[in-house]
Design brief:
The chain is of the alpha+beta class. The chain folds into 3 domains: 168 residues, Sandwich (Immunoglobulin-like); 159 residues, no CATH class; 111 residues, Copper amine oxidase-like, N-terminal domain (Copper Amine Oxidase, Chain A, domain 1). It contains 9 helices and 36 strands. It has a 9-stranded mixed beta sheet with strand order 6-9-4-3-2-1-13-16-15, with no helix packed on it. It has a 5-stranded antiparallel beta sheet with strand order 7-8-5-11-12, with no helix packed on it. The protein has a 5-stranded mixed beta sheet with strand order 18-19-20-22-21. A hairpin with a 2-residue loop joins strand 26 and strand 27. It is elongated and about 100 Å long.
Length: 454
């Protein structure tokens, strides 16, 4: 649901903070949708007192959705006549502008967009394009920034003006100190100490961490790493931890307190260094960088998560267009392998085969027994399924499960990593070795694999 109230401009005076929000509307909007407004916000003693005035608001009954927490709510008219406001309902008679007042805590220089009140009429929220102008009279040399483009930045003797690009969505504001500088990547901003400029390597890590996010503010050189989107802090310059911290914090928030294990796996997986836990190591081996980024976007898009393992498996399956139950299996098997299965039809010389194609460590594998049964080759399984002896038209092979060597014609050795593997009690052979050693070529079609001898 989009917000009715939008940010516009800020005035800072003598240690108190006043925010005046002015509105810009398109000419095509009808009279009801063209409700202009301005907001005065007074910061004092750790609280924001918000006075929000609506102009040209259509008469009627409005539902009021307050930001959490909000207290001391009231309304008023300019001519001081009575104004009717219940906690969640505003009755507006029309005519003069109406002002809504409320208070909420504020503990620093970051103003999240979520502190704005919402009005609904007939079940619908109104979307009004906005332009934000900051007028800083404080003399404290603040640098006001937001995750949108700054159109003008003008410093005069007693006032500093900032004008931000017009936008249709609410966004946070941040009042940085003069010793801090701002770097932008996409629609996100990073704040850091001027005395220690960002390096190319740090910017690269930050771009990756903030990829897929909009309206996020990151403050570096902090005394700890934490927070939740849209505001994150990073201890010193430990930027390599940011991406995992963002995902872990979001998962915890969406699931109302997730297991520490899943947060630890995500934080470890999205570090810029090799993973340290087994689970994150398996995920890193099984996912390419584009898949990791696509998975991150899907996780961040989730607003509510009831079953964390099912959610993680489901989003992974969507990203790779194949099914995995890795996290769900780990409930009972801590050593469960990470792989995807695909619901593709399998044919050998136009004859339907049983079994599924799997992807393990970013490599395609085929069910070995089903292929051997259809191939006409002479073959046998030895040593309780750990050894496969296969006679092709040209060579005789002896393959060993989970070993990097195999025997050729009982007189020489071949090498290959994970040529045959066992997943869920089914033995699979790697696609490349299937072609190079068994002379069986696999051709992928739409939802089908066709195998045939070369």
């Amino acid at each position: 649901m989009k917000r009715f109230i939008k940010i516009a401009s800020t005035v800072l005076m003598s240690g108190a903070v006043f925010l005046f929000f002015q509105w810009s509307m398109t000419e095509q909007m009808d009279q009801e949708a063209a409700g202009a407004g301005e907001i005065v916000v007074h910061k004092e003693s750790g609280a924001l007192t918000v006075s929000l005035t609506y102009h040209n608001l259509a008469p009627g009954i409005y539902k009021v959705s307050w930001p959490e927490p909000a207290g001391e709510v009231s309304c008023s008219y300019e001519d001081e006549r009575p104004c009717w406001l219940e906690r969640d309902q505003l009755n507006y008679e029309g005519g003069d502008p109406v002002t809504v007042h409320y208070q909420r805590p504020f503990d620093g220089g970051f103003l999240p967009a979520s502190w704005l009140v919402e009005l609904y009429k007939d079940g619908e929220s109104k979307d009004i394009p906005l332009t934000v102008t900051v007028k800083d009279f404080s003399g404290e040399a603040f640098v006001w920034t937001a995750p949108v483009t700054v159109e003008s930045d003008i410093a005069m003797e007693h006032v500093h003006y900032y004008r931000f690009q017009r936008t249709g969505e609410p966004f946070p504001l941040f009042a940085a100190h003069a010793a801090e500088d701002v770097w932008r990547t996409g629609d996100n901003v990073v704040i850091y100490h001027k005395s220690d400029p960002l390096t190319y390597a740090q910017k690269k890590v930050l771009r990756r961490a903030l990829n897929g996010l909009n309206g996020t503010v990151v403050e570096l050189d902090h005394n700890h790493t934490g927070g939740t989107v849209p505001f994150m802090t990073v201890k010193n310059r430990e930027v390599e931890k940011l991406e995992g911290e963002i995902l872990g914090a979001h998962l915890q928030q969406a699931s109302s307190g997730s297991s520490d294990f899943y947060e630890r796996v995500l934080k470890d997986l999205y570090l810029s260094e090799p993973p340290g836990t087994k689970a994150s190591g398996k995920l890193r081996e099984g996912l390419a960088e584009p898949q990791l980024q696509a998975w991150k976007k899907r996780m961040l898009a989730a607003e509510q998560v009831e079953d964390i393992p099912a959610f993680l498996d489901g989003t992974l399956s969507e990203v790779n267009q194949g099914e995995t139950r890795f996290f769900q299996k780990r409930r009972n098997d801590k050593d469960a392998p990470f792989f995807f299965t695909f619901d593709h039809d399998l044919y050998f010389h136009n004859t339907r085969m049983e079994g599924q194609v799997v992807q393990y460590k970013q490599t395609i594998y085929f069910p070995l027994v089903s292929i051997l049964e259809a191939s006409g080759y002479s073959w046998a399984v030895l040593d309780d399924g750990k050894v496969f002896r296969i006679q092709t038209e040209d060579n005789h092979y002896r393959f060993f499960l989970d070993q990097e060597t195999f025997i050729v014609n009982e007189e020489s050795f071949g090498t290959g990593k994970e040529v045959i593997i066992s997943l869920d009690k089914t033995v699979y052979m790697k696609q490349d070795e299937l072609k190079q050693l068994l002379d069986i070529q696999a051709v992928k079609g739409k939802g089908v694999w066709n195998l045939q001898k070369k």
